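About this split. The held-out portion is used to measure sequence recovery: a designer receives only the structure tokens and must propose an amino acid at every position. Recovery is the fraction of positions where the proposal matches the reference. Here is one held-out target exactly as it appears in the evaluation file.
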């Protein structure tokens, strides 16, 4: 899977780029056919927001478009929260497809 990491209003360190590439790359095991992943980091400038760091992840592939957005006090925490959300979404999609293939519906 090809993973692209970009940012807005902040600098991305090498550690953050490597963490994003490895964590988003591991999501491919949930659903085959995912070809590209995009990770966008941004920072909210509003002082009232308690979690200013935002991570947005988009996965695209053969008929799949999955997107999630998560915030945290640190970019690494925002990335972890986004990956957790995507894991739940992809697991749900995978079980839905397996149910359709087997023909069993509840």
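Reference sequence for scoring:
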């Amino acid at each position: 899977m090809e993973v692209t990491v970009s940012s807005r209003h902040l600098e991305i360190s090498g550690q953050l780029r490597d963490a994003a590439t490895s964590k988003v790359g591991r999501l491919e095991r949930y659903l085959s056919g995912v070809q590209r992943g995009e990770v966008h980091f941004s920072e909210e400038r509003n002082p009232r927001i308690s979690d200013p760091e935002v991570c947005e992840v988009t996965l695209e592939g053969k008929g799949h478009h999955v997107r999630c957005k998560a915030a945290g006090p640190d970019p690494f925490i925002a990335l972890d929260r986004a990956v957790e959300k995507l894991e739940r979404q992809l697991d749900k999609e995978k079980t839905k497809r397996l149910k359709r293939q087997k023909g069993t519906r509840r």
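Annotator remark: The mean pLDDT is 90.
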